[in-house]
């Protein structure tokens, strides 16, 4: 494994921690600022929207900047945002801090995905992307539970200060281990924008929004759901997040392995099973053992879609993948924002803390329908997914092999 992939995974670990740790700390933050749980949920929605808009914005601003330098600048922005969150005197200021940190998220994973794919041979691209995303998933096994425990024991502000320190480690890793990889010559913004004329790129992004939205419909409100419905103690939320993280790690690695072999079947299985499991969560949430198993499955099935969807966007972006890759990361977070908002709506409407699970099931099922539509259009156009990787230009493949 190229050491540069380790550096990208370190950065992903820090970003993953700050993205997900807020779910376990919503009650503490809400209580400290004197706001309701649905209002505190805007810290999730705001972060997700910041990723969605920040991904293309920061990528476009970085079109003239070498990829390594841009990754370093993004980690610096991430550090500033988390420090602002840690020191925020009011809820609105913390929300601003979350948005500032989120601006780095999409572009880091988008540019990082391209760098990771360029470091390996063409038939290993999805695996390399999955390796980078392993940092994000491991954050949910180590960073998020530990951050939740610290936040509940010492104070949530300490958690965000520690996350800022993680950002410093990520910045150092990128500076030390990622090689200088300037942008490909001749690829300009108009070439990057042309990728959005491809219906398969757009369908993959729509699947990303809906599929990942299904995951976050349930997970955003996991703390109040598990304590008020299932009967877990507040301290148990930490270990439930560990289970979710373990599922994410396994699902991400399996998704990366099979995306290089059978990309569309991997999406059919993961999205279909995700819809079923989310629907069942409305029942299993009333039993401690069943809910714990369900949380693992949601993490695994949700993150099994990440490498294949990211690879599908890269395959169909026709030699100018950076912006499309970053926008697809934004699409993951648009799904987060959409589902966090919808989950808050159904809770505020009085349907209870399990109602967001139904929202998630519908979103995942809709993503599955789009996956079948995408495959049907691909067959009609005579461009089967098995040869989609052939759309990568020869010069990019040569760069990948050289590494």
UniProtKB/TrEMBL annotation:
Keyword line: Cell membrane, Membrane, Transmembrane, Transmembrane helix
UniProt cross-references to InterPro entries, sorted A to Z: MFS (IPR011701), MFS_dom (IPR020846), MFS_Efflux_Transporters (IPR050189), MFS_trans_sf (IPR036259)
Ranges annotated as spanning the membrane: 42-61, 73-96, 102-121, 128-150, 156-178, 199-224, 236-254, 266-284, 290-309, 330-352, 358-377
GO CC annotation, single: plasma membrane
Occurrences of domain Major facilitator superfamily (MFS) profile (ranges): 4-379
Single annotated GO MF: transmembrane transporter activity
This protein's record includes keyword RNA-binding: no
Domain of life: Bacteria
Membrane topology: Multi-pass membrane protein
Any coiled-coil regions, as ranges: none
Protein name: MFS transporter
Species: Streptomyces pactum
């Amino acid at each position: 494994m190229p050491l540069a992939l380790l550096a990208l995974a370190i950065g992903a670990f820090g970003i993953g921690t700050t993205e997900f740790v807020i779910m376990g700390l919503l009650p503490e933050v809400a209580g400290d600022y004197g706001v309701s749980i649905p209002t505190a949920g805007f810290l999730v929605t705001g972060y997700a929207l910041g990723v969605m808009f920040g991904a293309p914005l920061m990528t476009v601003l970085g079109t003239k900047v070498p990829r390594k330098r841009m990754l370093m600048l993004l980690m610096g922005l991430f550090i500033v945002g988390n420090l602002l969150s840690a020191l925020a005197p009011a809820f609105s200021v913390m929300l601003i801090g979350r948005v500032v940190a989120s601006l780095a998220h999409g572009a880091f994973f988008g540019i990082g995905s391209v760098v990771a794919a360029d470091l390996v041979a063409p038939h290993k691209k999805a695996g390399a992307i999955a390796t980078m995303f392993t940092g994000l998933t491991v954050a949910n096994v180590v960073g998020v539970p530990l951050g939740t425990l610290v936040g509940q024991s010492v104070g949530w502000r300490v958690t965000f200060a520690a996350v800022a320190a993680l950002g410093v480690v990520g910045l150092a890793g990128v500076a030390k281990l990622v090689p200088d990889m300037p942008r490909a010559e001749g690829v300009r913004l108009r070439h990057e924008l042309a990728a959005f004329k491809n219906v398969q790129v757009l369908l993959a992004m729509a699947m990303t929004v809906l599929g990942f939205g299904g995951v976050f419909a349930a997970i955003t409100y996991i703390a109040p759901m598990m304590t008020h419905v299932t009967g877990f103690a507040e301290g148990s939320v930490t270990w439930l997040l560990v289970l979710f993280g373990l599922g994410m790690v396994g699902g991400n690695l399996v998704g990366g392995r099979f995306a290089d072999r059978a990309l569309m079947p991997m999406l059919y299985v993961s999205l279909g099973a995700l819809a079923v499991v989310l629907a069942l969560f409305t029942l299993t949430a009333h039993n401690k053992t069943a809910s714990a198993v369900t949380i693992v499955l949601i993490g695994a099935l949700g993150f099994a879609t990440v490498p294949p969807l990211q690879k599908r966007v890269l395959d169909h972006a026709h030699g100018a993948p950076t912006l499309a890759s970053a926008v697809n990361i934004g699409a993951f977070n648009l799904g987060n924002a959409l589902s966090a908002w919808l989950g808050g709506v159904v809770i505020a409407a009085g349907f209870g803390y399990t109602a967001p699970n139904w929202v998630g099931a519908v979103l995942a099922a809709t993503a599955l329908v789009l996956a079948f539509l995408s495959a049907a259009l691909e067959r009609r156009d005579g461009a089967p997914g098995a040869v989609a990787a052939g759309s990568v230009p020869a010069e990019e493949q040569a760069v990948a092999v050289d590494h």
